[in-house]
Amino acid sequence: MNSRERVFTALQRSGVPDRVPLQFDLCRSLTDAFAEVLGIPIHYTTSYFEDLTYRISANELRLAMGSDCVVVGGSLPRGYEHPVTDAGYIVNEFGMIMRQGPIYMEVVDPPLKNVSSVEQVTDHPFPDPYAEGRFDDAKKYTEQYKNDYFIIGDLELTMFEMSWHHVGLEKFMMDMALGEPYVEALIDKVKAFSIGIGKQLAEIGVDAIWFGDDFGAQNGMMISPGMWRQIFKPRYAELWQEIKASNPDLIICYHTDGAVSPILDDLAEIGMDVFNPVQPNVPGHEPDVLKANLGDKIAFWGAIDQQYLLPNGTAEEIETDVAEKIRILGEGGGYMCSPAHMIQSDVSMDNVEAFIEAVMKHGAF
Fold first, then answer.
1. Domain 3-362, CATH 3.90.180.10 — does that match?
2. 181, 247, 283, 288: most buried, per Cβ within 10 A?
C-alpha cells in the first residue's frame, strides 16, 4: 500500500492496512531543527489563525520523516500582511490583537470584549473566506501529493474556539450560560466563515477535513453535554452536511481535546468519521473502552500522550505505549497513530524519532 491507500483503509474502516498509518505535527523550533539536520528547506504557510500555521506547513519535512499525510488549509490572502502595533503585537484578520506566548499565540485584546448585542456582532467585520490567494498553497500541495499521500484540510477553531477568542473565554462562557442573544449570533457568523473555508477545501480535492473545537478539560467537559447538544450539535450537523454536499466522499475528522466521552456518540450520530486526538489519561478515554463502544462507528487518530510521555519518557516507555495503543485501537483497522497534540518544544528530537520508530516497528499487521 502507498500512504494514501493505507490511511483510507484505516480511517474508512474498510479493512486492515499493511501497517498503522502515521501522522504528526511539529512546533516551530522542532521543525527548524529537523529541517537543518535533514537539509530540507521549509515553506511556512501562515494560517488565518496563527497557531494553525504549523499544522499546514513543512509537509516536505514530515513526509521525509515518515508521515502518511499532507495537511493543508486556508492561509492569508495573497499579498496580505498583518498590521503590527507599536508594542510589536499583530492584528489578525478578525481584529484580534495577538502576541507570541511561551507556546501559543495569545489574544491580548479581543475585538468584541464589550459585546452585548446581536447588532455589534453583525457590524463587526469578518475576513472573506473567498479572498484571492487564500488557498494557493493548499491547491499546490494537494495537486503535488494527491496520488501518493492522504490529504487533510485543516479547519480547526470551527465554531466554539473562534467565537470565544473574539470575546474572551470568561465572558463568553458566562454569557452563553446566561443565554445572551449575541452568543448564538456570533457562533453562526463563525460557522458561515467555516463553511466558506470548508467548501473550498472540499472542492480543491482534500480527502478529509479536520474540524475542531476543544470542549474538554482534564476531568470533564467545559460546558455540560446538554448545553453542547442544544447549541452546538445541530450546527455541526448542518456544517458537515453543507460541506459534504461539495464532496460526499469526504471523511469528517473531529478534534476536541480533554475528557469528551459524553458527546462522542452524538458526534458519530451527526457524521463524525474519525475522532482526534483521543487524549489519553482522562476519564472515559480508556482505549479498550473506546474501541469496544465506538470502534464499529468511528476510527481513532491520536492517543499518544503529549503531556508526560513524549516530553519525559524514555525511548523504551514510548515504544511500550505506542505498541499498546496500536494493539488495542488498531485491532481490525480503524486507527492512525499520532501524538494527542502538536509535538512541542519540551520534547527532544530523540523522543520524536523514538515515537516514529516505534510506530514503524509495531504498526505492521
1. no
2. 247
